[in-house]
Amino acid sequence: MSSSSVSVAPDDHAKPWETTRRGLMLLVSSPAGAGKTSLSRRLAADHLDLILSISATTRAPRPGEEEAREYFFKTREEFDAMIAAGELFEWAEVNGQRYGTPRAPVMAALEAGKDVLFDIDWQGAQQLSEKMPGDVVRVFVLPPSGPVLEERLRVRAQDSPETVARRMAAASSEISHWPEYDYVIVNSDLETSVNSALAILTAERLKRARLLGLSAFVRDMRAVL
Fold this sequence. Notes:
Blueprint: E1 20-21, E2 25-29, H1 36-46, E3 50-52, E4 55-57, E5 71-73, H2 76-84, E6 88-94, E7 97-102, H3 103-111, E8 115-119, H4 122-131, E9 136-142, H5 146-155, H6 161-175, E10 183-186, H7 190-205, E11 211-212, H8 214-224
Parallel strand pairs: 2-8, 2-9, 3-8, 4-5, 9-10
Antiparallel strand pairs: 1-11, 4-7, 6-7
């Protein structure tokens, strides 16, 4: 019988690898008005396997916002109590208001292999990167231009002219942190930006270091070859 006609029976003892992994933390930052919130909401709405981290904040709800959907709205006293109790993963003060990430739901999601999406400022991203360096994936969202950024802030009509001016003044400082991120998306078109973010997420999920049990799977495979 020629070697070309020899068939090899499958190894009954070989076990297929079950893809398991630790979850990752997708951190999305931008200056106000560049589109990180719109991008984050689209990603979370379209992909049920991506959990949106809900932050706590001391700022008042904007029209249409709901408790535990956009934020957990807290008084200064309540926020300080969360800090004192160690209930926040990170927190920062931005434009006179405090924002922070509740710790417990994030850790539970990561350990269950779920990915957590963060709509977060650069200060919070720095803190999370220091505490969880192997788990974070950082994406910075830039506006296509300064005038477009200002127009977006004015059109959304959620802030006073004074607040818009303050946010524009802060934008240059916020944008200066873009080199601290792993990826940059210039948000000229939301649909294109969503697709770019999904490509980043797909690639990061396939990183060797995140695939639990892969080394044992390859070792067992080689043992029967």
